[in-house]
Design brief:
Largest sheet: 6 strands, mixed
Strand order of the largest sheet: 2-1-3-4-5-6
Distance between the termini: 43 Å
CATH architecture of the largest domain: 3-Layer(aba) Sandwich
Radius of gyration: 20 Å
CATH superfamily of the largest domain: Type I PLP-dependent aspartate aminotransferase-like (Major domain)
Helix content: 25-40%
Length: 245
């Protein structure tokens, strides 16, 4: 990465993504993905955002915080754009792979776009699906030179994951998956409860998340209104602060 290299971040995105890019001297480029499109990046938006300085595209599916899920066709359409821009690498964050609702099928970017495998980095972990956040174990699949460089940085920063956590991860991935199914069903029931509750509140909206376990609540109709004390809610931060207080 060179100073000024750009990384495309479809918004809404995980809060740490832009800081990761900045930490390496890069420039995060936010692409707003509206609710009308399911908070998904479209080929048109992607094409418009790519410049000669673009080096990475970050994808997160299901998305944090939107819960957006990409179908195989969605990913293939993005792949067709990326095929025209060989300088762009793809980071596909698939940590919520198993937390997906309404009978949807998860499709990895690597499976949907095998022709881009030589510049795709798939990252995952056991924190979400296996309720192992405290174990701090993740894993990645990608081109050997890239993974080797990642390993070099990892070994000089946090050294490695402890052996106990590694053994627990192997047991989680290779053992019975009954609990993963139970977790998903519980999360889906909770999602339904939250969506129903939020929709009963005047001024708030919540499209049903397609995966993950977040509620990305809309409050656009409350912006500009006044509180009982006469304070104007000028933006979403003001609305959130008012509700919290």
């Amino acid at each position: 990465t060179e100073p000024g290299d750009e990384a495309i971040l479809p918004a809404p995105y995980f809060v740490s993504y832009p800081e990761m890019v900045k930490l390496l001297g890069g420039t995060p480029v936010t692409v707003e993905c509206p609710e009308s499109g399911g908070f998904r990046l479209t080929p048109e938006l992607l094409e418009k955002a790519i410049t000669p300085k673009t080096k990475w595209l970050f994808l997160n599916m299901p998305g944090n915080p939107s819960g957006a899920v990409y179908s195989a066709d969605d990913l293939k359409a993005l792949g067709a754009v990326l095929a025209r821009h060989p300088q762009v690498l793809i980071l596909s964050d698939e940590i919520y792979e198993h937390i997906i609702f309404d009978g949807r099928e998860f499709v990895s970017f690597g499976k949907a776009c095998p022709d881009l495998r030589d510049r795709s980095l798939i990252v995952n972990g056991v924190a979400k699906a296996y309720a192992m956040t405290g174990w701090r174990v993740g894993y990645a699949a990608g081109p050997a030179p890239l993974v080797k460089a990642m390993s070099t940085i990892q070994s000089q920063s946090v050294t490695s994951v402890c052996s106990i956590a590694q053994a627990a991860t192997v047991a989680a991935l290779n053992g019975p998956q009954d609990e993963v199914t139970r977790f998903r069903e519980a999360f889906e029931a909770r999602r339904n409860l939250v969506v129903d509750g939020i929709r009963r509140i005047n001024g708030l909206t919540l499209p049903p998340p397609e995966g993950a376990f977040y509620a990305y609540i809309g409050c656009a109709s409350l912006i500009g209104r006044k509180t009982p004390k006469g304070v104007v809610l000028e933006d979403d931060t003001a609305v959130a602060t008012y509700l919290l207080n």
